[in-house]
Automatic annotation (TrEMBL):
The keyword Cell membrane does not apply. Residues 7-131, 152-269 form the VOC domain. The gene is mhqO_1. This is Ring-cleaving dioxygenase MhqO. It holds the Pfam family Glyoxalase. Gene3D superfamilies: 2,3-Dihydroxybiphenyl 1,2-Dioxygenase, domain 1. It comes from Paenibacillus glycanilyticus.
Amino acid sequence: MNYHTAGIHHITSFVRHPQDNVDFYAGLLGLRLVKKTINFDAPDVYHLYFGNEIGGPGTVMTFFPSEGARIGQVGGGQVGYTTFVVPVGALSFWEERLTKFGVAFERTARFGESYLQFKDGDGLQLELVEREEGAPSQWSFGGVPADKAIKGFGGAILYSTRPAQTQDTLANVMGLEKIGEENGLVRYRAAGDLGNVIDINAEPMPWGTGGAGTVHHIAWRAASYEDHAKWREHVIENGFLATDIIDRQYFNAIYFREAGGILFEIATDAPGFQRDEEFDELGGKLMLPSWYEPQRGIIEQNLFPIEVRVLEGDE
């Protein structure tokens, strides 16, 4: 059986202050905070999910914000750049918006496309690209109208310490297609229309170090629970150590580290973020898994209060 992921499901990163995180990704970038929960393995830390209006697969950037966390060093064994896709004609809007809020950016080009590259307050490397493909976002917030809004992921640039092996995994395990090489990068494409374009360094990169401003893992899509279980078998058959299937409440997950050092996850599209909140209520309150509900009071006391707010300058 041939396995072909549709592309990126979500990307998870480390940052420092939770309110700064909300202000940047919801306030400035206009993404919707679709879920406010905790790190199930460390309940004194938020797990915040930002995406399109429903947090659909291929749109969600998630964060573990921890005040006082050390700053990491972006490098090998990580996602180097997270790519967001916007509608064709929207880059000029985003240039103006980044300028308005004092975010330095650089316009770059590769594989015939123009990109705006910039960093969030913790140094996480981001970029915007225009593309026709991908359903438009139906979410507007602050100064970001829906017709200029981020659709979801365009893809990512992977930084591998062993790029030949990582490329083999992309092609022969994850089912991506190699479509080009240019200026030290190799481009792969997945089957879907969001989170589907992956660039990777052709030559080995030195190791990065984890911490705020770095990506923890990149998650790939599995279409169904049955498909997900088969993905786990497939990963193991290809020589990787895969975790058991883990219930993350909003998707099921398995994890494995590919040979270039990057932590891969494979996640189910279902059940999604409306399993425990109605559409109009998404991200409005702290959602806890059942086993943490008895400790809700203590958990809430240990978390910094956050709010989604319109930034000064958009009011």
